[in-house]
Amino acid sequence: MSDRIRIVLADDQSLFLEGLRTLLSLDESLEIVGDCANGQEALEACRRLKPSIVLMDLNMPIMDGVAATKAIKQELPEVNVLTLTTFDDDERVFEALKAGASGYLLKDTPSKQLVDAIRTVSAGESFLQPSIASKVLAEFSRMSAPAATEKKAVKLLEPLSVREEEVLVWLSRGCSNKEIAGHLSLAEGTVKNHVSNVLGKLGVLDRTQAALMARDLGLI
After folding, report:
1. Which CATH class is domain 139-216?
2. DSSP, res 185
3. Which of 50, 12, 23 is nearest to 34 (CA)?
4. pLDDT tens by residue, 34-84
């Protein structure tokens, strides 16, 4: 299948890596093109194999997941990174998102949610579980706090419409385009267009940055 999602796996725990490969291989829409035991190998695999997505463990030797994510996104911005971690309070989650990761999953995430997340991130969307979206935004707010005293009014390239503001609010809560469509009774394609317009008007590159702008605009 030419439209299969090409995946590189990166984790230094061989048993977990083997189990992940076996699990994902059951889905014909996915293709495991390589696996790695550290971040340096992941970077080299991305250079060689040009995958759609990397499932990146955060805790690895030689080069950890955060450093590898940063290197991959700087050199190969078209490659999407979905980070894996054992604990949802791992501080490196926020570092990975700052480095360019499109989202994160706990290692004990059910297989269906894992596949859904892979498809979402491969399509260029972010995957933030709603239960932790507010925690992510709060952490980014804390990290940017030193600049708060000089904070100026946000100036948009072009004002958002009422509908675009609604889309931005749901996006900031970690919802996918499909979920936003359900909340607003819109077609998923329409939501996708609204999201593209929102990113353009905000002058940001991804949904995480858009969510931070939503906070600055007072929408969340």
Report:
1. mainly alpha
2. T
3. 50
4. 999 999 999 999 999 999 999 999 889 899 999 999 999 999 999 999 998
